[in-house]
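Supplementary Note 3. Input sequence used for the single-chain structure prediction.
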Amino acid sequence: MNRRDPDRLPLISGSPVPGNGSRRGSGRTEQIEQNEHRRLWKQVGHMSTVELTKENFDEVVSANDFVLIDFWASWCGPCRTFAPVYEKAADRHSDLVFAKVDTEAQPELAAAFNIQSIPTLMVVRENVAVYAQPGALPEPALEDIIGQARDLDMEKVHQSVEEQQAAQQQGGASGGSQPPGPSDPAV
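The predicted structure, written as discrete structure tokens, is reproduced below.
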């Protein structure tokens, strides 16, 4: 991947993170609440990584505009290989939140994101999952992904998400046509 070409970052659907309402177009009260979350989060100080649970997930993700999430398990060899690479990146990028989800202890979170292989790295910017891929990354690849995610034009990402949501709503409201499936007699 070329760090100078943010369009090459393999975006996932660009969908809002489950459990978090879209922050775009929010009212003044919600903006005040978000600012308070950010203020409290900064008071805690930067920890190398944050353990995410179903209890703190919404708070951590909504209080921070850039969160990297490592889905892992203690029995997973590639997860143990990736852990020190992830920790070093967390130390280098103290302006970002590096979080971890133990898929054994938090199966609901793993299921909410349809995690089927671990480790899986997910990048969430402004409540939008912009990247998710399984596999233990070497340090240069992780740095490249972080750089590309930083370079994303989030206005374009939010616009794309809104267009996708509008198309889904329009298709659902009009009983939009579905492509034929394997059980469809026309196939």
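The CA atoms of residues 24 and 58 lie 16 Å apart. Helices lie at 28-44, 57-62, 77-92, 107-112, 139-151, 154-173.
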